[in-house]
Design a protein that fits this description.
Blueprint lengths: L2 H6 L4 H20 L17 E4 L3 E2 L2 E3 L4 E5 L5 E2 L3 E3 L2 E5 L2 E4 L3 E3 L4 E5 L2 E4 L8 E3 L4 E5 L2 E4 L6 E3 L6 E4 L2 E2 L12 E3 L3
Parallel strand pairs: 1-4, 2-5, 3-6, 4-7, 5-8, 6-9, 7-10, 8-11, 9-12, 10-13, 11-14, 12-15, 13-16, 14-17, 16-18
């Protein structure tokens, strides 16, 4: 039924206008492909998946495909559940607030740019886990909270876990000695 028909049948003009505005807004957001709070991050392509997360809280996700990119599209999207990264990915501008660490799996190769990692009180030992088979680069990231051990549990060669211009506000050591390279970390 058209807007004119609804108004002709006695529906208040303001109600019709509000409904049309909501419908147009929903269509626009859907067309942008921005995952919102209730939309899971799901890699549909074999590679080169791109996601722009809206502000607000998001659930757990697992990335397995090569060249996946997840970035903030709004004010600090916050991930509050455990994240597993198995493929090659770039994560930009996300805030990870959790009790379980962000975990790289297998031969994952991940670049974190401008992310914030926050361990809630009573959380685990580490904020990020990087096994010997994986590689991680942190650029301009902030680490907060009170881990009971190193901030990043890196079992890698020193060239495979790299910190550039990061901020460690935890009071804990950034990673085990000999397992990382850092430049400009404060």
């Amino acid at each position: 039924m058209s807007s004119r028909e609804e108004i002709a049948k006695g529906r208040p003009r303001l109600d019709v206008h509000n409904r049309e505005t909501r419908d147009r807004t929903a269509e626009t957001v859907d067309a942008l492909g921005v995952p919102t709070r209730d939309t899971p991050v799901s890699e549909d392509g074999k590679q080169d998946n791109h996601f722009a997360l809206a502000g607000g809280e998001h659930g757990a996700f697992r990335l397995t495909k090569p060249f996946t990119r997840v970035r903030a599209a709004g004010k600090a999207p916050t991930v509050r559940r455990q994240v597993f990264l198995e493929g090659e990915a770039t994560i930009e501008g996300l805030r990870f607030v959790m009790g379980d660490p962000v975990t790289l799996v297998g031969a994952a190769a991940v670049v974190f740019i401008g992310c914030e990692f926050y361990l809630e009180s009573g959380g685990g030992e580490h904020l990020v886990v990087v096994p010997a088979t994986a590689k991680a680069v942190f650029i301009g990231c902030t680490f907060r909270g009170s881990p009971s051990a190193e901030v990043v549990d890196a079992a890698t060669a020193a060239t495979d876990t790299v910190f550039i211009g990061c901020r460690n506000a935890t009071g804990a050591t950034i990673a085990p000695v000999g397992t990382f390279t850092e430049s400009g970390t404060i």
